[in-house]
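lol so apparently i was supposed to do this last week
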Amino acid sequence: MKNPKSKFDFLFKILVIGESSVGKTCLLLRYTEDTFNASHLATIGIDFKLKELMIDDKLIKLQIWDTAGQDRYKSITKTYYKGSQGIVLVYDVTSMDTFEKIQHWIKQIENNASRNVKKVLVGNKCDKEERQVSTEQGQKLADEKGIKFFETSAKTNENVKEMFEYLTNEIFRNYEEKEESINIKKAKEDEEGHHKCCK
Ligand code: GDP
Ligand code: MG
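anyway here it is w/ guanosine-5'-diphosphate bound
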């Protein structure tokens, strides 16, 4: 039964990973704040942003984590992956290098994330003319890895909402059988406890 005092029904942690400057921070800000800024973001990273959405009659709260510059060192700590239910794996369609590095990031996921974490592969900056990675190449890699593929633009807002909502749905549909449900419950209780003590 739903707890009437609860502000939300589920809290999911989602990570956005990939090479530096592929547009991770921009995707996050586009989805959570519907903004895009072409200039100021290159060097900054944010910790995480919150976003709420409804699935069926459930209020889902997403905690979406940026990599805050750690992407430059290519070794994000295990702590970062811990307790995450979803991962957005981003490359830049105008950079073959960032696409090739996806293999590295997939290894990172295998080594650090929970085995049943839900993933999406994202080719960002699809608004740009000067492509190095075709839609077919992206789709082929996603098929090989058995994960869903999206091409997005944080600039024009193409497919951004669709991508995050697909991932959230995947997490939601599967959470019940998974051990993560325990973590989600715990995180939720922690947050509720936190609200209580702040009143
Ligand atoms: P991050 O290092 O992966 O977080 O990348 P940022 O989000 O900081 O973006 C790097 C650069 O790419 C910035 O100058 C953005 O304005 C630009 N950028 C990000 N997403 C898009 C996009 O979808 N289209 C275009 N044209 N530029 C983008
Ligand atoms: Mg960034």
